[in-house]
Write a structure and sequence with these properties.
This protein has 263 residues and is an alpha+beta fold. It has 2 domains: 108 residues, no CATH class; 87 residues, DNA polymerase, domain 1. The chain has 8 helices and 10 strands. Strands 2-1-5-6 form a 4-stranded antiparallel β-sheet, with no helix packed on it. A 4-stranded antiparallel β-sheet has the order 3-10-7-4, with no helix packed on it. A two-stranded antiparallel sheet has the order 8-9. About 5% of the residues have low confidence.
């Protein structure tokens, strides 16, 4: 037979000898012989036999090469003006089969298990199992802590004092400069957005001030900001607040009050 049309996993495939096809997951190991008994059509040149629905006594045999996940398929769901936006990923498990024989008239397959494929699969499983052990062996053992000398103990206390003073001085300097590390000081960031940012691990103005264009795009998609961070210049506002400048909302209020007083 030159070709056959088989059905497996709810799908139809046109196959020929030595073809390599990817089908839905099969209950077999690499190197095993797999047989497809649901044959819808067989053909040899112009001689074509169509089943009703299956061709009686026909089957297709081959070797299972491997079973692995396919590429990620992105499922995007969105309802306009409903605040509904979902993004999921799915990886379908597929079996790769090398077709060996197309059989008719109730003939049995002459294929046997492929030892090379089995050996390769066993070697792959062995390497995966040994990976944690190799990683643990490659990791250097932690150095043993040396016991502190009895004479060195009193000298450790004076060194700790200057560090504490330095920390206090830094905090006082920031307080004098008017810097309060609160993301809600950014104009346009209310209680809801503050909670969303905290859930994403953003709790500091210094973090937002260090955002790159890639970070802006990432958090815009992750938190569904719809471009708000870029429009309201969150990064520049954060930099100004860290530098000790007053919040933009406060400045805008002062300008509005001044304009009203002039009128």
């Amino acid at each position: 037979m030159n070709f056959a049309v088989i059905k497996t996993g709810g799908k139809q495939y046109k196959v020929a000898a030595n073809d390599v096809v990817k089908v839905e997951k099969l209950d077999a190991e690499p190197g095993d012989v797999v047989t497809f008994a649901e044959v819808l059509m067989v053909g040899n040149g112009d001689d074509v036999t169509v089943g009703a629905p299956l061709v009686e006594g026909a089957s297709v045999a081959g070797h299972l090469v491997q079973t692995k996940k396919s590429r990620t398929v992105i499922i995007q769901k969105k309802h306009r003006r409903q605040h509904f936006d979902r993004r999921n990923g799915h990886r379908q498990i597929l079996a790769t089969v090398r077709i060996g024989e197309i059989l008719v008239g109730g003939a049995k397959t002459t294929l046997t298990a492929d030892d090379k494929l089995k050996a390769r699969h066993a070697a792959l499983l062995g390497s995966v199992a040994e990976a944690p052990a190799r990683k643990a062996a490659a990791k250097p053992a932690p150095a043993k802590a040396k016991a502190p000398k009895a004479e060195a103990a009193p000298a450790a206390e004076p060194k700790a004092a200057p560090k504490a003073k330095k920390t206090e001085a830094t905090a006082e300097t920031k307080a004098e400069a008017g810097f309060t590390d609160d993301v809600s000081l950014i104009s346009g960031v209310g209680a809801t957005l503050t909670k969303k940012l905290a859930a994403a691990g953003v709790t500091s103005l210094t973090q937002i001030a260090a955002w790159s264009d890639a970070d802006l795009k990432k958090y815009d998609e992750e938190l569904a900001l719809h471009g708000r961070a870029e429009r309201d210049e969150w990064v520049q506002q954060a930099k100004d607040l860290v530098a000790g400048k007053p919040p933009r909302a406060k400045v805008d209020q002062e300008h509005a009050a001044a304009d009203k007083a002039k009128k």
